[in-house]
Amino acid sequence: MKYPVLGALSLILTCYIVAPAQTTTTSKSATNKTAVRKKVPAPVEAASIAAPAQLPVPNWLPPTNPVQPAATIVHDLLDTKLDVRFDWAKQWLLGTATLTVRPHFYPQNQLVLDAKGFDVKNVELVTSAEKGKDLKFAYDKKKLTVFLDRSYTRTEPCQVRIQYVAKPNEILSTGGSEAITDDKGLYFINPLGTDKTKPRQIWTQGESESSSCWFPTIDKPNQRMTQEISITVESELKTLSNGLLTSSQRNPDGTRTDVWKQSLPAAPYLTMLAVGDFAVVSDLWRGKTVAYYVDPAYQHTAKRVFGNTPEMMEFYSKKLGVDFPWEKYSQVAVHDFVSGAMENTSATTIQQQLVQFTNRELPDVSYDTESVITHEVFHQWFGDYVTTESWANLPLNESFADYSEYLWAEHKYGEDAAGLVLQTKLNNYLQEAQTKREPLIRYRYANREDMFDRHSYDKGGRVLHMLRNYVGDEAFFTALNHYLSQNKFSASEIAKLRIAFEDVTGEDLMWFFDQWFMQRGHPELRITHSYDNGQVALRVRQVQDTLFQPVYRLPVTVTTWNNNQPTDHHIVITKADQTFRLPVSQKPSLVKFDNEGVLLAQLDEERTQDELIYQYNHARSYLQKFEALDGLRNKTADLNVSAIFRNALNDNFWAIRQKSLEGLRRYKGAEGIAIRKELQRLALNEKKGVVRAAAITTLASFPNEDFSELYSAALRDSSYLVVGAAVDALAKSPTVATREPINALQDTKNPGLITALSNYYALNGTADHYQWFLARTKDAPSEVLYTLLENFGTLMQRMPPIEREKGIQRLEVLARTHPMYYVRLGAYKGLNELIASMPVLKPTLQDIRAKEKDERLKSIYSLIP
C-alpha cells in the first residue's frame, strides 16, 4: 500500500486507546490506517490530530494543475545488479550498480538515469564479465547522463556499470505525503546504537520515486526490470530483499555477503532491502517460502499476527484465477518506517507498531492490523504483477488493495465484519471530501504524492464494490482474471481495466467508468416516500453541486416490507429529481433505499421513529442495524427506543454492542437503574475488550455517579484497552484509593496506556509526575507523543515557572526537530499551553512557526491563536 502512516497512527490508537467505537460511527470517525498505503492518507482520527477544526472552504473549481502524463520511455530498463555495503557512522551506502538497458524504439547514444544525492565515482560500459570501458558522464545530483560509446538501436542492449556513494541525509527532501512522510529512500535507524529503545536497522522505501536515492535507475512506474542485489553486512545481522536468497557467504573481514535474486520483472520503486537483528519466523504456501521478520522479542507472537498470510495467498489465488506470482513472500517489521506499509515485490515492509504485539496486547488487536497485512498481499497482484503506468492512474494499485480488506473480511469473518469495513471506507472518503474532491484518475496534480489520499484508497475501493454489485460476482472476478492475464508484468491504465470488464460482460461500461473514475465528487441524495392507492411514491433528488460534479446514473435496490416480508425493487436513477412508483399490497412498514448499502453516496433518507425501530428489528445486515441505531441515538428516553438499545447490547456482532453503548451515554430515561446494571455487567463480563472499554466510557458519561469501585477493578483487567478506559474515567473523577494503582502503571510500554496516563496526569498530576513526562518524551513512540506533549504543557501550568525549564527545553527541541510533523505539532501545542502564564514564550513560538517548512504545519499554525 503505502498504507498511510497516519492511517497507521490511527490504527495504533484504535488498538490501544479506548475510542474504538469511533470506527463505526457515521459522523465519521473511522480511519483505518494507517497508515498507515499504505502510504495511506490521513484517516479521521489522524485528521483530527493533524488539523484544527476550522477547515478551509471547499473549492470545486476546475483544476489549474499541469497535465501529468506517463513518463516517456526512452530506454527499457531490463535488469539491475547491485553490490552494496554500508558506512553506518556516516549513513552512506557504498554501491556498484550494473544496469542492462535497451533503447525503447529510437536509437540512443546517451542514457539518462535518476540518481539523487550521490557521489558518482566511475561509469563504464561493460565489455565482459571482468572488463569495462570508461564512459563520460554529466551529473547534477538528480540526473546522471551517461554518454555511450556509440548509438544503440532497439535490438541492441548494453550494460553500464556505475560506482557510487549514496548519501541519503544530504538529499533535500520534499517532505513526502500524508501516506509516505519522507522521500529520501534509504534510512539508517539508530546507526551508532546509542538509542537503547530501538535496534540498529537499515531499510529502504521506494515509492513513489525514491529508489533512485540509493541506486541509479529509471525511476518510473512504467519500467520493469529483473534484479540481483548483493548485500554485505556484519555477520550477526540478517538481510532481506526481493526474490530468493541464492547465496550467503562469510568474508575474511568478519562480514557476510547475501545475494538476493528476483528473476521476474517489476517496477524499480518496488525494489527493497532491509538489514537488522531480526528473528525470522518461517511459514509456507504451496511449497513457497513465507517468512515474517520481527524484533526477537516478538518472534513468539509473530505467527498469531501474520499467520493468516498463507490462507490469504490461497484465497486470492483462487478468487482471481491467477496464482501468487512471485518466488516467495516475506514481511518485515521495521522501526520508524515512513509509511504504514509498503508492498515491495515479494517482500513487504511494515511499520513495527502495526504488527509487533505482546501476548497481553494481542486480544485487543483489531481487524485493522489484519487489513494492513491483506492489503499488502493483494498488492502483489494489483500494483506489482500489474503496475500503474503513471501516478495519475494510482487507483489501479490502491483501490484494489483497499478493496481486498473488504474481500478478506467477507471471506474470513462474515458479512457483518465486511459491512463494517465498507462503512469505514465510505466515512474516510466523505471526511476528506469535505475539503477535497478530485477524480479518481487524475491527470492533473501539483505533486505525485498528492495521489496518495482517501480518494485513491477508500473511494476507489467503494467504487469497485459498486462495480462488483452491478456486474455480479462471476463477471467481476472473471474480468479481474482477464485484466491480470492480459497485462501481467507490465504497466496499465484505466482504459485497460474498462476494456477487460467490457470484454467479459459485453456491455459498454463507459458510463460507469466515466462518472466514477474520471469525474469528481459523489451523489448527495435526499429520499422521501409516500403511500397512496397501492403504490409507494419514492422521490430521489440529487442535490450535489452539478456545476462541477455529474448527475449520476445510479442502479439501486429499494426494499419495501409488508407483513414482515421484504420485496426488492430495482430502479435506475438518471435525473436530478426523479419519482419512482413501486407497487405494494398495502402501506409498507418500511421503505429502505439502497437496502444493502452499496452506493458511495451521502444519503438523507426520511424515516419515522417507528420505521427505524422496524428496520432494526428486521435488519438483515450490520449496516442496517447500525443505521437504525444511529437514527435513534437521540431518542433513547423513549421506552420503545431504549428497549432497542438494550437489545443491541446482546447483539452477536461486537460493533453493534459498542454502538449501543455509545447511544446510552448520559441516558436519562425511565430505565436508568436497569441500564446502569447492564452497563456494569458488560464492563466486567463482556468477552471483547473493546466493548468492555466502551462500557466503562459510557458509565463515565454519567455526571455525579460513583463507579470508582468498578474502575478500580478494571485497572487490573487483562486488556490494555479496558485499563486505559478506567484511567480515563478516573481522570475525570479521581479517588484516593486508585491513585497508587494508577501510579503503579507508569512503567508500561503500551502506547494506549501511556496516552491514558498522560491524560490523567494532565488533569490530576503533581510535581511528582514531571519526571515521568520528561522520561516519556524520550522513549514514547511517535504516535503517543502528539497527545503526551500537549498534556505535558498542561501539567506544567500547575508548576512554578522556575521548575519548568527542562520541560520547556524538551518541548522546544521536539517542536523544531522531530521528524514526524504531528509530533512537532504536539510539542508546539504543549508550549502554547504555557503562554498565559509565561508570555515570554511568545517569541519562541513565533520563531518555530517562522522556521517550519512543512506546509501542513504552517497551515495549522496559522489557525492556532
UniProtKB/TrEMBL annotation:
<dbReference type="GO" id="GO:0042277">
    <property type="term" value="F:peptide binding"/>
</dbReference>
<dbReference type="GO" id="GO:0016285">
    <property type="term" value="F:alanyl aminopeptidase activity"/>
</dbReference>
<comment type="similarity">
    <text>Belongs to the peptidase M1 family.</text>
</comment>
<dbReference type="GO" id="GO:0006508">
    <property type="term" value="P:proteolysis"/>
</dbReference>
<dbReference type="GO" id="GO:0043171">
    <property type="term" value="P:peptide catabolic process"/>
</dbReference>
<keyword id="KW-0732">Signal</keyword>
<keyword id="KW-0645">Protease</keyword>
<dbReference type="GO" id="GO:0070006">
    <property type="term" value="F:metalloaminopeptidase activity"/>
</dbReference>
<keyword id="KW-0479">Metal-binding</keyword>
<keyword id="KW-0031">Aminopeptidase</keyword>
<dbReference type="GO" id="GO:0005615">
    <property type="term" value="C:extracellular space"/>
</dbReference>
<protein>
    <recommendedName>
        <fullName>Aminopeptidase N</fullName>
        <ecNumber>3.4.11.2</ecNumber>
    </recommendedName>
</protein>
<dbReference type="InterPro" id="IPR011989">
    <property type="entry name" value="ARM-like"/>
</dbReference>
<dbReference type="InterPro" id="IPR014782">
    <property type="entry name" value="Peptidase_M1_dom"/>
</dbReference>
<feature type="signal peptide">
    <location>
        <begin position="1"/>
        <end position="21"/>
    </location>
</feature>
<dbReference type="GO" id="GO:0005737">
    <property type="term" value="C:cytoplasm"/>
</dbReference>
<dbReference type="InterPro" id="IPR042097">
    <property type="entry name" value="Aminopeptidase_N-like_N_sf"/>
</dbReference>
<feature type="domain" description="Aminopeptidase N-like N-terminal">
    <location>
        <begin position="81"/>
        <end position="270"/>
    </location>
</feature>
<dbReference type="InterPro" id="IPR045357">
    <property type="entry name" value="Aminopeptidase_N-like_N"/>
</dbReference>
<dbReference type="Pfam" id="PF17900">
    <property type="entry name" value="Peptidase_M1_N"/>
</dbReference>
<feature type="domain" description="Peptidase M1 membrane alanine aminopeptidase">
    <location>
        <begin position="308"/>
        <end position="516"/>
    </location>
</feature>
<dbReference type="InterPro" id="IPR016024">
    <property type="entry name" value="ARM-type_fold"/>
</dbReference>
<dbReference type="InterPro" id="IPR050344">
    <property type="entry name" value="Peptidase_M1_aminopeptidases"/>
</dbReference>
<keyword id="KW-0378">Hydrolase</keyword>
<keyword id="KW-0862">Zinc</keyword>
<dbReference type="InterPro" id="IPR001930">
    <property type="entry name" value="Peptidase_M1"/>
</dbReference>
<dbReference type="GO" id="GO:0008270">
    <property type="term" value="F:zinc ion binding"/>
</dbReference>
<dbReference type="GO" id="GO:0016020">
    <property type="term" value="C:membrane"/>
</dbReference>
<dbReference type="InterPro" id="IPR027268">
    <property type="entry name" value="Peptidase_M4/M1_CTD_sf"/>
</dbReference>
<keyword id="KW-0482">Metalloprotease</keyword>
<dbReference type="Pfam" id="PF01433">
    <property type="entry name" value="Peptidase_M1"/>
</dbReference>
